[in-house]
Amino acid sequence: MHGKTIINTKLTVEELEEKYLSCLDPREKTHWQIIWLVAQGKTATYAAKVTGLTNSWISTLIKRFNEKGDSGIIDHRHTNPGGKFTLSNDQKNKLKELLNYKSPDGGLWNTRKVRNWIEEEVGHIVGNAVGHRYLKYLDFTLQSLRPKHLKSATEEEKEEFKKNFMKKWMKSERRILKQNVNSGHLMNIESD
To answer: What confidence category does residue 119 fall into, taking pLDDT thresholds of 50, 70 and 90?
Structure first.
């Protein structure tokens, strides 16, 4: 913002200062501070440095204030209802009921499966995070059984595990040795 910035208001600098000091909303307070500083003759660049906002935002704010007055200062996010849900209330209830049962493929529900169900339900593609958001929104957590403890195995199962584990371990050791030989990374472990 170059040159002198003009604030179009009938309020005095003292009245602007009072609005700034008495404002309770932190964002609106910063907006009033900017208007008050610029009305005192300070530059928009100075107001940007003091408040930590950008020159372009200062310019936008002053333009809004000059066009709309006090209503240009208000933080409109408080009155913004937000975006629409992807699913209607009936569809959400249907999904919540479905989550109590196995997924269509017979497995457990996950983000991808919920997203696919939503896409079929609404008839268009949705983002990858939508399935996760709905699982979270519906307070669904994936419940799966913990693996059995080793002590719960029978003696035969323990012996089978030991036998197979050693075979697999020996194969992996041979594979690692073979890789080291093929890559030329042989180490001499003999001492001098």
So the answer is: very high
